[in-house]
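Reading a protein record of the kind used here takes only a little practice. Think of the row as the fold of the chain written in a discrete alphabet. With that in mind, consider the following protein and its fold in token form:
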Amino acid sequence: MDNAITIRDLHVSYDEKVILEHIDLDIRKGKITGVVGPNGSGKSTLFKAILGLLESNAGTISITGKDIEHVRKSLAYVPQKDGVNWEFPATVSDVVIMGRYPHKSIFQGIGKKDWDIAVHALEDVGMTEYKDRQIGELSGGQQQRVFIARTLCQQAEFLFLDEPFVGVDIKTEEKIVEILKNLAKEGKTILVIHHDLSKIKDYFDDLILINRGIVAAGTVEETFTKANVEKAYGGSLPFL
């Protein structure tokens, strides 16, 4: 099996409260992997640990066999909407072109090739006509499209999306899923934190069920079972 991300015995805690423990995962290359579990189960923490945005207490994480510092520019992250400052005075074009910064040295500027990539990214998500708008003026769905465009502009090999469908209309959701599936066909590895269990079989190749530890992980067919879902959610089992 061609694994893109390998995690062994990962432990993460905040202020002595255990958030993740004994995490062992093999995430397949070129697949869309859903990450699901109840509120507070450690989904976002798992992303931040993989991305090196917080320190783990123990364990190892390797991406294509390398430490994160050697692959950082290949990683793109779309955080939860409430983790973004929408008042920041940046236009849609400003946000999208940020995807080129990981490819630049400290003294390099943004050139025509970079702007061409940004223009194509905006076209791909259908946001060209909004390129001069301030990001905070957009609807929730439009904002998510812009952040997807930024990841496309980055041309990253690994995409991490934390609840990308919250606050978006069904048309935008379907468009984002179409984009992600096309990226996966190109060999990109995509992880998506998601809460709507009714869409699991339609959206994902693989699935991680998490509740502080890994309840189950593997292909959707072998992992998305009633027993595993009940084990992950316990008394907070969502209505299906």
